[in-house]
Description:
Blueprint: E1 2-9, H1 20-23, E2 24-25, H2 27-31, E3 34-39, H3 61-67, E4 72-74, H4 84-97, E5 101-103, E6 105-106, H5 109-112, E7 116-117, E8 122-128, E9 147-148, H6 153-161, E10 168-174, H7 185-195, E11 200-206, E12 214-217, E13 220-223, E14 228-230, E15 234-237, E16 241-243, E17 253-255, E18 265-267, E19 275-282, E20 287-295, E21 302-304, H8 307-323, H9 328-357, H10 364-378
Amino acid sequence: MRLLFVGDLFLGGDAQRNEIGKIIHSKAFWSADTKIANLEHPISNHALCADKCTLFTDSSAMNNLKQMNISAVCVANNHIHDKLDQGILDTLAELDNAHLGHFGAGMDDSHARMPWDINDEICILGYCDFGHSYLNKVQVASHNKPGVNPLRLESILRDLGELRDGKKAILFFHWGREHVWLPPVEDIHLAKRLLEDDRVLMIIGSHSHRIQGYIRHNGKYAFMSLGNFLFPNFFMRPPAQITYPNTEEAGYLTTREYHPVFALTYKKWPAVCRASIMVDYDTERSTISIHPVYQEDASPTIIDLEGLRRRVVVFWVFFLSGVYKSPRPVYATIALLHHKASIYWRYAKIAFFYLRSLGMFETPRYIIGLLSYHRKRQNPGNSEK
């Protein structure tokens, strides 16, 4: 059996105007026996939504999900509660009605902990991290409240302990910081600790919205983040909630970041967030391979990367994986510096967006005039008469 794990999946935005069969052009994707993805949003017709940056679709998104022939989805992520408790329940009901597997979140904690069985020997368990500055506003399931299965070592070991003898688990994690190449050092340490457990077969990660490398330890792999598989462009309304305009309004701004806005804004992903890897696991041969894919900028079209672009992505994954092998103090320093640089660079791009939204970069004439004014101040005798 060929298991194919793909990265973050969002079926809203521009994807709602397209048929999945016409926008996913990947031989590896369509030829897999079993496909598993991270469903990064609730599917609900419920009107209310959380007071946060939100992602969601209505029930029409199920048509595309079924057309993808996805076998199961991980619903343990920080957006599954964007339509509040009812959104979680609606999503689970939609998946059940479509006979699609799901794991990692549930109507209560016991439901959220339930594994999804691939076959008699292998199952998948899903978890979402929480309680960090980079992963907050996450609702953890309790005995009387829907939510996600918490990503904590004690919770994982408890769930592994309930597997029957001989059964192996693939762990699907939603963890780490967004928009970075290097995961937190604590996540690398946790991955190695779990790969030493005989009951763990592999770890698949998501959340960073870009490709990260892998950990190879004890003869097994932890892929820290697969990146965005299908994450179309979408509209946002203030403060940062996804919206679906009835008509395509003119005059809206475009941003490459995810941040509060003050008017209708079109969210597009930067190039580094449109590349992802699919992990192909052959259960009979116990072999693993990766397939780089890319989402086009103007439309949610997915293509297999080939030639030079494929080699670049494969090399980058290999290079990052080598960096993860650095001694812990060295890696922690590198990861912290990378994280800080990413924050400042992102803030700079957001600041530029806000200045542009105020009209300061509306036309080249403004910039030319500003430079001309500066030259005149520097050389007052050369001003025109």
